[in-house]
Prior knowledge:
3-stranded antiparallel beta sheet
Amino acid sequence: MHTEGAPHPDSPGSPDSPDDASHFRQVLGNFPTSVVAITATLPDGRPEAMIVGSFTSVSLEPPLVAFLADRSSRTFPKIRAAGRYCVNALASDQELLCRSMATRGADRFDGIAWRRSPLGNPVLDGVVAWIDCELAEVVEIGDHHLAVGRVHALRAESAKTPLLFFRGGYGDYFSSTSVLLDRLVGW
């Protein structure tokens, strides 16, 4: 029987302190995160993008979503100035696109196929889904900016599995339920 406040019987010793940044990052790496490309069209018409692993829904009424951008990002101020953005949920077969778009100083759209969203933001070809947003609020929190967007339009594009980040590497997700159903149906 486990007593509240006591260390879990399967855990060795006391919990570790969150003060060691590398240890904090290592432990949080055990929580899988989605990988999304935040895209926007700048006032001069050029597309811009950044990769984030911290995207979430915030509210159904009104429809709000949010992502976290590192305060040291050189791209986020450009997206913030655009006042709108599109969240592109990357598919498991888009790891190379992800790595390319995460490279500093590169033309992130070189060789990348995309079309404009209803708000004029880039929607990347081959994504699982996209959400077109107007920037509603930015909150400085810790060493990040929390960017909250009001959803203008959204669409699930494909049945592909999403790209995930887990324990320092990229991978995908395939539900055990899907495997079971495939076996039962005989696919």
